[in-house]
Design goal:
Strand content: 5-15%
Shape: globular
Structural class: alpha+beta
Low-confidence stretches: none
Order of helices and strands: HHEEHEHEEEEHEHHHHH
Distance between the termini: 50 Å
CATH class of the largest domain: Alpha Beta
CATH topology of the largest domain: Cathepsin B, Chain A
Number of domains: 2
CATH architecture of the largest domain: Alpha-Beta Complex
Strand order of the largest sheet: 3-8-4-5-6-7
Number of helices: 10
Radius of gyration: 20 Å
Length: about 325
């Protein structure tokens, strides 16, 4: 089949939101969505965290699976979408046949993937147990044409490589094997106050669920404090050098949603502004923690525990303004 030209990357960059980057690059023009941070916030993935013991890639992991979070963002924006997946032990034949049909009509986002299965990555074994998302643009005799928005690269993957990565059997994320999704054509996203109320409710559910989980919510910071006392090695420092900047990004995404809630008068100003101050300090404390790790020191997480606990509690207490209730 003829391969459609892979377009420029309207959304790309070294940001830990590969699921959102893939969706935006595949289906959105740059003026359709105000910014990546807002779309990522609408997935609700930045809301809620958990520290998975013994997993260096998930010291400050998200509570809500990005695979399901993309459904939430599309629903909030009023977009029609299709999602398919197969049982974990299913053969690849049906999934590949479906992918061929879909990609003949337009781009397809696949993932979560086994990131260590992507052969174009340098030292790809370092990404063992990491998830990732790609956009499929076409297929020909050379293989499957994909783009990786997080790295602003386009590649051709042999089918055997695609199957190994796409099965997603070496990662905890995903609702099954061979997850694929697409948006209906010629849709313009809209974000209404009513949709934002629903997103607010979802984020509150995330935060409450995370706080009620062992090593979840504010306890994730405390768990790292305890782990630091048991293990302060170069590998642990390396893991924190990824976890802290990623967490800071997600705090910024939370703030972006809060600004949108204020702009559309979904929540009242005074309560929201107090939360913004707490989140701003959390981001500043994370910046200090990053600097401490980079200079070889062990950060203290006590203040971060307090800030996260208070901001989550205040966020969960946010109420919709009378003018916006429906």
């Amino acid at each position: 089949m003829d391969v459609k030209p892979i377009p420029p990357f309207p959304y790309s960059g070294n940001l830990t939101a590969c699921h959102s980057l893939a969706m935006l690059s595949a289906y959105f023009k740059s003026d359709h969505v105000p910014d990546l941070a807002l779309f990522e916030a609408l997935t609700t993935v930045p809301f809620g965290m958990v520290s998975l013991e013994g997993d260096p890639n998930r010291l400050l992991n998200v509570w809500y699976d990005p695979d399901i979070g993309l459904d939430r963002a599309c629903t909030a924006l009023g977009l029609l979408f299709d999602v398919r997946w197969w049982p974990n032990d299913a053969p690849a034949d049906d999934a590949l046949a479906c992918l061929r049909r879909w990609v003949a009509e337009g781009p397809v986002v696949i993932g979560p993937l086994n990131m260590d299965g992507l052969t174009y990555l340098f030292e790809r074994q370092l990404y063992r147990m990491c998830d990732h998302y790609l956009v499929i643009w076409g297929v020909d005799l050379e293989g499957w044409w994909v783009s990786d928005s997080e790295r602003s690269v386009s590649e051709v993957l042999r089918e055997v490589v695609l199957i190994d990565a796409w099965r997603g059997d070496r990662i905890p994320e995903g609702r099954g094997a061979f997850v694929m999704r697409r948006l209906g054509q010629d849709q313009v996203p809209t974000l209404t106050p009513q949709a934002l109320q629903r997103v607010l409710s979802w984020t509150q559910d995330n935060l409450l669920s995370a706080e009620n989980t062992l090593r979840g919510g504010s306890k994730a910071y405390h768990a790292i404090n305890c782990d630091l006392k048991l293990e302060w090695t170069s590998s642990f420092r390396c893991a924190l050098s990824y976890a802290f900047p990623t967490r800071m990004q997600r705090v910024r995404h939370q703030m972006r949603l809060l600004h949108e809630l204020l702009d559309q008068e979904v929540v009242s100003g005074l309560a929201a502004k107090h939360i913004l101050l707490l989140m701003q300090e959390e981001a500043e404390q994370l910046a200090l923690a990053i600097e401490t790790v980079q200079t070889g020191g062990a950060p203290n997480m006590d203040r971060l525990c307090v800030l996260r606990s208070e901001s989550s509690a205040r966020w969960c207490a946010l109420e919709v303004t009378d003018e916006r209730r429906f």
